Amino acid sequence: MLFTQETYVQRRRALRELVGTGVILLLGNNDSPMNYPANAYKFRQDSSFLYFTGQHRDGLALVIDCETGKETFVGDEIDIDDIVWYGSVTSVGEMAAETGVAEVKPMAWLAEKCGEARAKGREVHFLPPYRADHKIQLMDLLGIHPSKQKEAASLKLIQAVVKLRSIKSAEEIAELERASHIGYLMHTAAMKLAVQPGMTEAFIGGQLDGIAASHGSICSFQSIVSMHGEILHGYPSQRVLEPGRLLLCDAGAETVEHYCSDHTRTTPVSGKFSTKQREIYDIVVDCHDLALTHAKPGVKYFDVHLDVCRLMTERLKELGLMKGDTEEAVQNGAHALFLPHGLGHMMGMDVHDMEGLGQTYVGFDEETRPRLDQFGTNALRFGRRLEVGHVVTDEPGIYFIPDLIDLWHREGINARFLNFDRIDEYRDFGGVRIEDDVLITPDGCRFLGDERIPYHADEVEAYVQG
Ligand code: GLY
């Protein structure tokens, strides 16, 4: 368990008070088979279960009765087979005691508890399930078909969990700093490798996995390593890196205790940016830095995103790629041809923190609903007013996506603001993204991590050539 028992006891008390009535059911994750039952993916606990219990084992659940305040830790005890194959592990009773829950019940008890609650007309609060086994379990326990579970999930519970998990405590920030440190080691290694002759994307991807694993952790998501940076999630291929191209590497670490980092760097394979690359790269750097000066408590992250879009549009106008009134161009979403995603997302125990609970509840509220009808804006993940203790990514990018350029050109989308002939000269450019993890502080914000991964163009060139 990462934190003290008191931390978990307090979190559960706060959760119970926020939800108020009914029965809270939190399901921990089960092992997930890869190609046959005994050959499973590396186990990953559900982040909310982890947040409220600190326990990493598969096959557990937690029940909190809001009215009586009674908490029950649920799981089937280990048997001799478990001990023979996996060694002597902590018992369910020991885990419950460690996290401060007095009552322990086997899994079969869940049916009894849920049946009793339903018979009395009490609400059983559950979070939106994202794994098939949980969907089946919830159907058995609550009689709700998997196709209806997303809408039947408890809004009260979702909102309570989002409220608690959104603000990172000092001890969580220390863990996020550790993740960022591993991220630093991963990215600086990748940048050095990117300029080695004969290097492949896949080799660099493998090195990233290895660095994360050698720190007892894993990558916080499947690493993106591609000379086609315009493919937002371009996974590594066996292609040999070509001098003259840019390599986009977007990767993060997850600590043993499941706190994440998420960084992106774009490195010139030749060790030096061409003039054309540097012009685009410097715009992204300035957008990245602008976000840092604007992000502070009370400011809507959606407004920071728009400030970045305005700056990007101004600078792309100077290069002759965009034209017209900047404000009008941004309002019409013309910049989204180059930046089809939002400035960032929340980060914590999930790299897209709590995304499974529903992006609308995590990233937005009444005053910051994204425009779902506008390309680019509809992909925003976080727009809420920033608060001290929020951790968000700052990840502007400029991409030249040939199919998107052709589509917009053909259909005349935002043609008033775009110089398609000039844009065509960048068809094989690829993409640039720069990303860091940012903690909102009382005075503004700061990067997470003890050392900065080089990102200003001169620093990048000096670093990879050094
Ligand atoms: N860093 C990958 C993503 O945010 O989707």
Overview of the structural elements:
- This protein has 466 residues and is an alpha+beta fold.
- Helix content is 41%, strand content 14%.
- It has 17 helices and 17 strands.
- The chain has helices spanning 5-19, 47-53, 80-86, 92-99, 109-119, 132-142, 146-152, 155-166, 170-194, 201-214, 275-294, 301-318, 326-331, 359-363, 402-411, 420-424, 457-465; strands at 23-27, 33-36, 39-40, 60-65, 71-75, 103-105, 124-125, 218-219, 224-226, 246-251, 253-254, 263-268, 391-394, 397-399, 431-433, 436-441, 444-447.
- The strands form six sheets. The protein has a five-stranded mixed sheet. The protein has a three-stranded antiparallel sheet with strand order 9-10-12. It has a three-stranded antiparallel sheet with strand order 13-16-17, covered by helices on one side.
- α1 (5-19) runs antiparallel to α8, α9 packs across α17 (457-465) and α11 packs antiparallel against α12 (301-318).
- The longest helix is centred in the middle third of the chain and has 25 residues, at 170-194.
- The site of glycine (GLY) has 4 residues, from loops.
